[in-house]
Amino acid sequence: MRFALTTEQQELHQVVAQLLGDACTPDVVRAGTGSPQADRLYAGLVDLGATGLLVDEEAGGLGLDENYLVPVLVEIGRAAAPLPLVDTLAVAPGLLSATGRAEDVLAGTVCVAADPVGNGLVRFGSRADLLLQGGWGGSGVIRVVDLAGAQREPQAAVDPAADLQRISFGTIIAEIDDPALVRTAWLRGVLGSAAELVGLSRRMLDLTVGYVKERQQFGVPIGSFQAVKHHLASALLAVEFAAPTVSAAGYALATGDEQASVAVATAKALASDAAVQVARATLQCHGAIAYTTEYDWQLFAKRAWAVAAQWGTAAWHRDAVARALGLPASGTSPAH
Amino acid sequence: MDLSWSDSEQAFRAEARDWLAGHVPARPLPSGDTAEGFAAHLEWERALHADRWSVVSWPEAYGGRDASLWEWLIFEEEYYRAGAPQRVTQNGIFLLAPTLFAFGSRQQQDTLLPRMAAAQDLWCQGWSEPGAGSDLAGIRSAAVRDEQAGGWRLSGQKTWTTRGAFCTHLFGLFRTDPQAQRHHGLTYFLVPLDTEGVTVRGFDRLDGDEGFAEVFFTDAFVPDSAVLGGLNEGWKVAMATTGSERGLTLRSPGRFLQAADRLVELAASNPESSTPVLTDRVVRSWMQAQAYQQFTLAQVTDIVEERPTGARSSLNKVYWSELDIELHETAMELLGPDAQLDSDWSRGFQFSLAGPIYAGTNEIQRNIIAERVLGLPRK
Ligand SMILES: Cc1cc2nc3c(=O)[nH]c(=O)nc-3n(C[C@H](O)[C@H](O)[C@H](O)COP(=O)(O)OP(=O)(O)OC[C@H]3O[C@@H](n4cnc5c(N)ncnc54)[C@H](O)[C@@H]3O)c2cc1C
């Protein structure tokens, strides 16, 4: 028993954290998907082998597992990177081998987005070359869609850095119906989102802890007021207890645990709730300054709200776990 | 990450499970917070001790098994899974013993620990006073030097002393330097309750059991050997092990995993009284119990690899206590009109409400988290 990263996992985590610290500053998040800065960030991640993290060594990848993926995606979340990285790093591997496009992803010439709902609404859509559509809940069929000639309509979104696009008329190049592949793709998407949420939550907390030590009212730092302390302590509790469930879910997937889907659902539910709670508490502790688009808090909060709602909300995952535990769940499971 | 158990850990689990299956009383014992129930629990404690299950992590010489922290966690999981009785000896074993191991003289360890393990000496915690709850440094009970007799004369009053009316000994803080302020000048004493000048008055807790006591000291004499750690160092000695009280050792994850499983069972076996909202709450609590376990696995890894966890034990305290309330409130809702009956659930519900009060209130813990984990300014 050892509930901690190995040295190699830590090393990968650190190089990724360093790259993101340098190449994914809030300015880069604001510049957004499709900007030269975001492209440079993607190239940097590709250089580190991130797009091949879950790809077998024989196929040119790093041949690593979800234990490595989780800390990498926590950092990507912390940086609010404006790229579909959960989709490209976590969901795509395993699905593209039949399409002849896997090498392009490894080489970084192609970026993959996922649309598990299948309604064509895609985040970071202008940067997506391939779309993985369908497979909600880990069953059904995932269509691999080439977006070369597709139609993209930008959608007004809460998160201005989300680059939300309504995409239609792509070319279906493969349909994946192998239940094991569809299930794994789903679970990795859920796990990856949970990891991102942990990173986003930590970033909001860090930003706020720094701020409340500096900002003075009544002649003292606002961080010395007990009400502020208690908000932030509660927010920290939510993150500190969500984070280990995400690591444990990664381990469950990496080791092929039969209970992995319950572990992954638990992680996503707790990480989503934590992120929403942290967002609320950290805005409150800032006051009006964070209620602006000029201040960086919004970049992380809006991303957190979006990710909390993707790949199954907290309530959706609790419903799934209720069924797994044999609890009296009502009617059919909620659609999304 | 390696969340598997070694062969020897699995063997340890199997041995514990077997023993518990063969020994846990078939019918639940009466509450250990009553005189009659306490006596029944002592028998159980002595059965545990006879087969060396009462203090698994202690050295064999003191009645333990030299078990690792991991094995201790495994034992706790099995203990709660087996529905074994509450530990009426817990305040000695989990709160005083870590302090004795850290600060006790060899002589104190050799005489006190084996008797504690065997449930011969039964320890209660004498920290709080009528005027000193959260503000523990406001302690006024005092010890005055009796040079001639070679010891100390204790006076004052302790209160909220858990199971004080049934215990034989008290560990507590007394002011030894009347000139010193606040947390200076306090000393940690080990006091037999049959000492002349000590009177104990039991009184009822919220659930109606006589689980509390007030302890009065009038010129009660204790020898120098009753001092644990240095003279006037009581605060340091007491605080060094508050982590045990707030954190993992007082409330191991096994307790909440078991409670969460019971809650799932309650909901699954009463589909007619459940609603989607209640199902959602059941699952939320169940998930939080898993989170508490995983958090502690990471924490034990830190402890084993000598990364100090420090003030992070306050995170445990707030989380387990609030989880416990949520688990029990949900159970009360599921029970509907039957919630008014005296039952394990309704008792558990009442006791869960004390969780955010004892072992340092959750308000105090949140202050600690903010100041010492997040680094916010004290003033
Ligand atoms: C079931 C149970 C068992 C117990 N067993 C023992 C025992 O065996 N031995 C023992 O010594 N004691 C025991 N206690 C007592 C326990 O340690 C105290 O109740 C606790 O320290 C709080 O003190 P108090 O009750 O005097 O409340 P107070 O300190 O008066 O607090 C009342 C309220 O004010 C709040 N408050 C106080 N100070 C602050 C602050 N600085 N910031 C914010 N809020 C604040 C508290 O959080 C609380 O909500 C037990 C208590 C319970 C409920």
What does this entry look like structurally?
The complex is a heterodimer of chains A (336) and B (379). Helices cover 53% and strands 10% of the residues of chain A. Chain A has 336 residues and is of the alpha+beta class. Chain A has a domain at 182-324: Up-down Bundle (Butyryl-CoA Dehydrogenase, subunit A, domain 3), CATH 1.20.140.10. In chain A, the strands form 3 sheets. In chain A, strands 1-3-4-7 form a 4-stranded mixed sheet. In chain A, strand 8 (216-217) and strand 9 form a beta hairpin. The longest helix of chain A is centred in the middle third of the chain and has 36 residues, at 179-214. Chain B is of the alpha+beta class and 379 residues long. Chain B has 3 domains: 7-88, Butyryl-Coa Dehydrogenase, subunit A, domain 1, CATH 1.10.540; 123-232, Butyryl-CoA Dehydrogenase, subunit A, domain 2; 247-373, Up-down Bundle (Butyryl-CoA Dehydrogenase, subunit A, domain 3). A 4-stranded mixed sheet of chain B has the order 1-4-5-8. In chain B, strand 6 (198-203) and strand 7 form a beta hairpin. The radius of gyration of chain B is 21 Å and the shape is globular. The two termini of chain B are 40 Å apart. Bound molecules: flavin-adenine dinucleotide. Flavin-adenine dinucleotide binds next to strand 1 and helix 12 of chain B.
